[in-house]
Write a structure and sequence with these properties.
Blueprint: E1 2-3, H1 11-27, E2 32-39, E3 42-47, E4 51-57, H2 60-75, E5 84-85, E6 94-95, E7 98-104, H3 118-136, H4 151-164, H5 166-169, H6 175-194, E8 205-207, E9 216-218, E10 224-226, E11 233-235, H7 238-248, H8 256-260, H9 263-266, H10 272-278, H11 282-293, H12 300-312, H13 314-331
Parallel strand pairs: 1-2
Antiparallel strand pairs: 2-3, 3-4, 4-7, 5-7, 6-7, 8-11, 9-10
């Protein structure tokens, strides 16, 4: 038996892990030979014959929604993802407030997926496009089950939280940087408000909602998979493409030309609303708000990552936003 707790730093976490392992051992008919935490409420579990990803959900309805959605995806032809499985257990897995589902294990490639290469960036957005085309065919069936994507409202709230954190932020960043970031956000939201209809019109799809690099998994045979559908919602494809653009821009030196090289995004660069939205520093606000909420600014590695995102890339980002403002001034006025 091999029980590994790589992410434990505190005694309380260690106790929880040991209790959870004992619970799994009591529920699985096969002997568990390895249990490894991946992140909060997600574990790699190996029995004598099978390997699973075990994931916890706060409600049974959330778990059932994920089981149904991934099954529908596969049935409708999107095969580049996982299924929830029914392992040999005594009863539904429920432990200390979490309902646990068993997810098909996809053996990963030796090289993890990242946005560093042009090949990966193109392959990632092509997979999102395929995902959208598949979900467009059945999103009406999920309209009563999923929330609508409210991008402007979400970003307005993110700016509000960031602004409330200003007294704290000034310990880490000088005022000119903070003021400029806030002005980008305000300018972006004003422009988005002027073109609000763009963010409401169809056709609608089921949005992934978190197209970060860690939600793309390349298997050991080289095929790319899309995973983790916790944030799915109903909305226009542009919402996922905006998020994807925000995620990859740091890897292409905030180059408008390189962004325009992606055909899925190219057509949106002729839309005023999309250009305004590209200026919103969603990543900066997200990471600072999380850092302060979780009080993880005492972690030098996490703080350095957020500082690099905010300050080291500040002038290349500013040049990109200046270009957006020029485009909107000259081409659309």
């Amino acid at each position: 038996m091999k029980v590994i707790n790589r992410s434990v730093n505190q005694k309380g976490d260690d106790d929880y892990f040991n209790r959870l392992f004992s619970y799994f051992q009591s529920q699985f008919f096969e002997e568990i030979v390895e249990l490894v935490p991946i992140r909060k409420s997600v574990f790699l579990l190996k029995t004598e014959k099978h390997t699973y990803i075990i994931k916890g959900y706060q409600t049974n309805s959330r778990l059932k929604l994920q089981e149904a959605f991934t099954a529908t995806l596969k049935k409708e032809g999107f095969l580049k993802t996982y299924l929830f499985l029914a392992p040999l257990v005594k009863e539904q897995l429920f432990f200390e407030g979490n309902y646990f589902g068993c997810i098909e294990y996809i053996p990963p490639n030796k090289t993890a997926f990242s946005f560093h290469s042009q090949k990966n960036r193109r392959e990632g957005i092509e997979l999102i496009e395929q995902f959208h085309k598949t979900t467009a065919a059945f999103e009406t069936r999920y309209r009563t089950l999923l929330p609508k994507g409210h991008l402007m409202e979400k970003w307005t709230e993110r700016l509000h939280i960031f602004s409330n954190n200003l007294p704290f932020l000034k310990y880490f960043m000088n005022e000119p940087f903070i003021s400029e970031m806030t002005s980008w956000a305000e300018w972006s939201l004003i422009g988005m408000e002027k073109h609000r209809d763009f963010f409401r019109k169809g056709p609608f799809v089921i949005l992934h909602g978190d197209v970060a690099h860690h939600n793309f998994l390349r298997d050991r045979n080289g095929s790319l998979h899309l995973i983790d559908f916790d944030l799915i919602s109903i909305g226009p494809p542009s919402f996922d493409y905006l998020q994807y653009a925000n995620r990859i821009l740091p890897y292409i030196d905030w180059s408008f030309e390189k962004l325009a090289g992606l055909k899925q995004i190219q057509k949106y660069l002729r839309e005023e609303a999309f250009l305004y939205a590209l200026a919103f520093p969603a990543d900066i606000f997200r990471e600072w708000n999380r850092l302060i909420r979780e009080k993880s600014y005492t972690d030098p590695v996490k703080l350095r990552q957020v500082m690099d995102l905010s300050i080291s890339q500040f002038y290349t980002r500013k040049k990109f936003i200046d270009h957006l403002q020029e485009l909107l001034k000259n081409d659309f006025d």
